[in-house]
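Sequence in, structure out. First:
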Amino acid sequence: MEQFQIETAQNISISQNTAHLGDRMLAFLIDTFIIFTYYSVMILILVSLDMDLGDTWAIWMLFSLPGFLYYLLLETFNNGKTIGKAAMKIRVVKLDGSNPNFGNYFVRWIMRIVDISISSGGVAVLTFLIRGQGQRVGDIAAGTTVISEKKRVSLRDTLLQELPADYIPRFPQVTVFKDHEMQTIKNMYTDAKRSGDHNVIVNLSTKIKEVAQISTDLMAIEFVDIVIKDYNFYTQQ
């Protein structure tokens, strides 16, 4: 997933994650299914009415407009999201991070003829891969891109915790552990404290001392808490 920098009016740089190609393709499939279903229902209704051919075509042209304008209408009135985009947690924005106007959405929509219709999506995919910044031809012409609004939480994020500015670590040996091992320790410690299971904390303390070769007379609950904080201290440096 690529990132691009947005410079706000206050000269603050913000990193945005461009939507992954897979997410955009899935959103496209969802939207295509919705449009296809809409047209299918409209055809069944018109057939069931048993109207004259001339009247049928006139009504069909009228009722086909929502499907024809699907992308333009939804992106304009739904904050850059179609139903498929909303499902995949992605949306259209301008390259400066602001919301596009109708003109931007219209250019994206009309350029679907080149990106999607004529080339069966080949131009859009090729441009996306070569251009970067999550842009197809329509995005380049409109000055837009598609960003992901998914929250990405890494293992490191779940380990981090605030430490006092004057915190002094006591056990440098804790760096022997890996992130996933310390995450397991933290989870077990938190769960044991919540349930009041002191035996788990004692066993955890014993195992930590054995692996890290630490000798201390601290109580188990205090020792494990310090180990977690020390690990955060050393890995945040």
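Second:
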Amino acid sequence: MHPELLLDNQICFRLYTATRLVTQAYTPMLTELGITYPQYLVLMVLWEHDNQPVNDIAHRLLLETNTVTPLLQRMEKLGLVVRQRGKEDKRQQIVSLTEKGKALEEQAYKTIPTGMGKELRFCPLKLEDYQRLAQELDSIINTLKK
């Protein structure tokens, strides 16, 4: 038996499980808003800075454009975003929020932070613990991203 291969010794298993369970906790709140978790991530990027090229959105989410494009197509069908050709570079697709997409920000603000707070209310971590954890996870992400 190799201790390096024991499941209990794997940080990746804990990261995978935490990610899966956090996403699962978000699902009922996002379903109420009519969106999926990946769509929520795109919306957060656009709420921060609207009118972005597809490449910039993909870069911010650490995804490939061929992953983001079908996601944006579905969001466009839902009336959350519009895609237009770039004015300076016609090859570029600029993604903008619609009024419906902008309105979801306020709805998300009213439900998601408090909803996640309720989900985590029995977790002994404090705000500063989550902030430190985010920094530590950023270190892992920045080390591994290519």
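Remark: The beta strands are 52-53, 81-85, 93-97.
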